[in-house]
Specification:
Length: about 325
Amino acid sequence: MRFRAVLGAAACLWAALATASADPVAIRTGWAVVPASLTPLFTAKPGLVRHLGQSYTLDLVHFAATPQQLAGFAAGEVDFASVSYSTLALAVENAGISDLRVVIDVLSDGAHGAYSNEFMVLKDGPIRTIEDLRGKAFATSGAGSSGDMAMRLLLRKHGVDDKAVTFVEVQFPNMKSMLLSGKADIITAITPFSMDGELREKARTLFTQVDALGPIELLMMAGHAPFLAKNRAAVVDFLEDYLRVQRWFMDPANHKEAVAIVANFTKRPPAFYEPWLFTATGDDYRPPDGIPDLAGVEADIKTEYEMGYVKAPLEVAPYADLSLVKEAAARLGRD
């Protein structure tokens, strides 16, 4: 009788442990803009993701832009955050976040002939050249962002001290109003905001980000190394779902439905997105395997160092763990 009781207690304990181990891992993920980020759209197409709610759950945390995500990441508010080449260097070299690991590429600017972010001025305004920006106001998404760095680099290349320009931090949805109201003389315009009809009617592109830097890793997703190690299986499931979602949205056969989903989320008409969204040349480049160009990131960070914004050049490989996304992509290859 006592033996049975011990077995029964052991069985109950094993069941409790099994249940606990099966609980989904909560992944707190930062995001700024849809459709640049696809995580807020994971459940928009029923049946598309396979592991959400099973091995992991998503706790989506909205930020104004990439630099703000990094601040949340450093403060422990999120497990995953989007970083650009510039914020990666700032995180490691300046902020000392040594456990940051890049795991997947989200967007590349100007790669393979794809869209590049635009820096726009009024068509009927006085600014015709970069030299005309002396004494003017530049609306930036945040100090240290890739757009901010591109602007400063081009200013220097054209002999304009960036201290002669006023930098005003503005959220992307408010860029157009800042330019049209005269509160800023030049703005950073990213999709979808750069495609606004009124903006394109009244403003023109002075230069693009690729003009300043060449193709760059605009957004990569990074996590804390201890979190990745502890929850590897769930993270690979998350990345598998991310790649599956991305491939579905990028498939031309799904274009109309994909556009409708984004339009519904952002409360814009589908016609706004139809000509450019998820296309090869009208949208940013999204690598189907999720592998970032780490050599390109390292080269861009060297430029950032030469501009004096980080303490030293950075060897990027130690701050990336691409084994997770490679495992996720390999699974999709077997589907």
